[in-house]
Design a protein that fits this description.
It is built from no helices and 16 strands. With about 200 residues, it is mostly beta strands. Strands 1-3-5-7-9-11-13-15 form an eight-stranded parallel beta sheet, with no helix packed on it.
Length: about 200
């Protein structure tokens, strides 16, 4: 935890090692931190709520830590500089917090092959810079939120192999930069909306 008393530290790269243990709660002291790169280790425990103190944090990559668990802290929504949130191939569980809608600069959210459940919060539609949503291989339920139609920069939407129900929202046709939409292996019903015909850049559906 002593590493967390470096107030000028801007980038922390510890990826691709055999590090064990939890992320220390003192990480909230690294208020200059912009890049937190911890992927492909053997970290365990939950993401501490003190991460919400990191207002300059742009990139979190902690995927590939199979024993990293627990829900995403609500305080993550305070990391308003966040551009990339990468927690794939972990045991992160629970719902996506509604505070994710505070992340106006977020471009990529990648929490696939994890244990997420519950509904996709409509507040995700506030993240208008999102280009990639990778939430496949989870247990997400409920319907695909119509608020995704606000995401005019969205290029890749990967929601396959969840427990999503309901119809495909016609608002998805407003995301005219979409290249790939993969919502297979769910329990969607109804018809394919005609508005998808507006997706002139679409290559895979």
């Amino acid at each position: 935890s002593e590493i967390c008393f470096l107030p000028k530290l801007q980038e922390l790269y510890l990826n691709s090692n055999r590090l064990e243990g939890s992320i220390p709660i003192e990480i909230g002291n690294l208020t200059s931190l912009g890049w937190l790169i911890l992927y492909d280790n053997q970290l365990s425990g939950s993401i501490p709520s003190t991460i919400g103190n990191l207002k300059n944090l742009a990139v979190i990559r902690a995927g590939g830590n199979k024993n990293l668990e627990g829900p995403l802290p609500l305080e993550l929504g305070n990391c308003t500089s966040l551009v990339l949130l990468g927690l794939a191939e972990t045991s992160i569980s629970g719902s996506l917090p509604s505070t994710i809608g505070n992340l106006k600069k977020l471009q990529t959210i990648a929490i696939y092959t994890a244990l997420l459940s519950g509904e996709i919060p409509p507040e995700i539609g506030n993240c208008t810079n999102l280009q990639g949503i990778y939430l496949y291989e989870n247990s997400l339920s409920g319907s695909i939120p119509s608020h995704l139609g606000n995401l005019k920069n969205l290029q890749n939407l990967f929601l396959w192999q969840n427990a999503l129900v309901g119809t495909i929202p016609h608002e998805l046709g407003k995301c005219t930069n979409l290249v790939v939409v993969d919502i297979s292996m769910n329990s969607l019903t109804g018809s394919i909306p005609e508005s998808l015909g507006n997706l002139r850049n679409l290559q895979e559906l």
